[in-house]
Design a protein that fits this description.
Layout lengths: L8 E3 L7 H14 L2 H9 L3 E3 L6 H12 L17 H17 L3 H7 E2 L5 H4 L14 E2 L5 H14 L2 H20 L11 E5 L7 E7 L3 E8 L4 E3 L4 E4 L4 E2 L5 E2 L3 H12 L3 H7 L24 E2 L5 H15 L4 H13 L5 E6 L11 E7 L2 E7 L19 E6 L28
Parallel strand pairs: 3-5
Antiparallel strand pairs: 1-2, 4-5, 5-6, 6-7, 7-8, 7-9, 9-16, 10-11, 12-13, 13-14, 14-15, 15-16
Helix pairs in contact: 1-2, 1-7, 1-8, 2-8, 3-8, 4-7, 9-11, 11-12
Length: about 425
């Protein structure tokens, strides 16, 4: 196992700190761009540190709740182990209806779309909101009561761990807004939209995001299902310090799971997996069409059972943002075709943020498409003493070739730069 040269401090949401409190704090973040409010909400004012020597029981708690990135072995301990998919649909629907009740008729019309409206496919991106128009309402334009209600919808949908991930990403954007002279003024702006009337028994979707966050979650109470495909999670900087001096790394779990998988491979397996030193951009950009390239790299059929589990742990960083039942269901479908799934990797082979320019990996199969890319540019968002490019600038995409948007719409090219097929310019 390769040694790692960075100690990660990740957001932790203890069970005693409820999401309602976090929502109010994040509402303040979105309204003011205050990084302190965000880091407090994401971390619950508590920090957890994990290491390879952590006991199994404490690792389960800190990895799922602290990193905000549950794996198949830890999702059930994230504080949502007794919550079913139906429970989540019911709670999210109730929160959405409560949010709608705070809106004027004009606002309600702006936030609601038909379930199959293709706007849902063109209104999200890894670009700032000034580059690609988002659907729905800008949370900045809402009253404090409405902001809190909007964030309650996100809190109801996500596990404590998933919510910490989302708010940690938002905190990073707020950090740049506050500390980087070149940061986009649109950082700290987030939009919320519903596609279909929120319902416990029919299909509807929540879209929430801004720059480095684009959540598309489709809920169907009739069959008890939730899908997060497609979703964009990113982070810049990947590691930052809040005003209390605490280091925050919202996507630490992605790095850790990816390198745990890489480190498990034999030399022959790595030879098939590795594509070279160049760290490429995303082939399938958020908000863009995708051909779902596959067949390059290491086949799942050539992995041991233990390695397959480690690969599922990587994938769980995207599909495991809600309750344990939803996570298990999604992973079971992916596992069924894991032998026909391919993984490739380029860039660094040791998790050391002081060396090289990061990594790119792609997981592509019949039921899953995950891509992770360290952006080689800071896009002008530089902060002295912090990595805002390479290791420090993360773009990712999760899609389901069989069920993007739960089959309700076909991806169209988004407006603005990065629309269409293939990768987008780095931003």
């Amino acid at each position: 196992m390769n040694s790692r040269h960075i100690v990660t401090h990740r957001p932790h949401v203890p069970h005693g700190i409820r999401k309602a409190t976090a929502s109010l704090l994040i509402a303040a973040l979105v309204a003011t761009g205050c990084s302190q409010a965000s880091s407090d909400a994401a971390s619950g004012a508590t920090v957890a540190t994990t290491s390879a020597s952590t006991s199994a029981s404490s690792t389960a708690t800190s990895t799922s709740a602290a990193s905000g990135l549950p794996s198949t072995t830890t999702a059930a301990t994230s504080g949502d182990d007794t919550t079913t998919t139906v429970d989540t649909v019911v709670a999210t629907t109730a929160a959405a209806e409560a949010f709608l009740a705070t809106l004027s008729d004009e606002q309600r019309e702006a936030v609601l779309y038909d379930f199959d409206d293709e706007t849902k496919t063109t209104s999200w991106s890894n670009f700032p909101v000034t580059f690609v128009d988002r659907a729905g309402l800008n949370v900045n334009d809402l009253t404090s009561e409405q902001q809190a209600a909007a964030l309650e919808v996100l809190a109801a949908l996500l596990s404590d761990a998933g919510y910490a991930t989302a708010t940690g990403i938002m905190a990073g954007d707020a950090f740049l807004l506050e500390n980087s002279p070149g940061a986009e003024s649109s950082f700290g702006q987030y939009y919320i939209a519903f596609f279909g009337e929120p319902s416990e028994s029919a299909s509807w979707a929540l879209q929430f995001g801004g720059h480095h966050l684009g959540i598309n979650a489709t809920m169907d109470g009739s069959d008890g299902s939730i899908t997060f495909a497609p979703t964009h999670l990113g982070s810049q900087p990947a590691v930052f310090t809040d005003s209390s001096g605490t280091e925050v790394q919202p996507l630490a779990g992605m790095y850790e799971a990816a390198f745990a998988f890489y480190d498990s491979l034999t030399e022959a397996q790595r030879s098939a997996l590795y594509q070279g030193e160049e760290v490429s951009d995303l082939s399938c950009a958020p908000g863009g069409t995708c051909s779902f390239p596959t067949g390059v790299g290491l086949a799942g059929a050539d992995l041991t059972d233990a390695q397959k589990q480690l690969l599922l742990d990587v994938i769980a960083n995207w599909v495991g943002m809600s309750d344990a039942e939803t996570t298990a269901s999604a992973l079971a479908e992916i596992e069924a075709t894991l032998d026909e799934t391919y993984i490739n990797w380029s860039g660094a082979t040791v998790y050391d943020m002081t060396e090289g320019s990061g990594i790119h990996f792609q997981i592509s199969g019949p039921n899953v498409y995950v891509e992770f890319s360290n952006q080689q540019s800071s896009a002008g968002s530089d902060v002295d003493g912090y990595l805002t490019s390479g290791w420090g600038h993360i773009h990712t995409i999760y899609r389901d070739p069989t069920s993007d948007y739960a089959g309700s719409a076909t991806q169209q090219a988004s407006s603005g730069p990065g629309g269409g097929s293939g990768g987008a310019p780095r931003r």
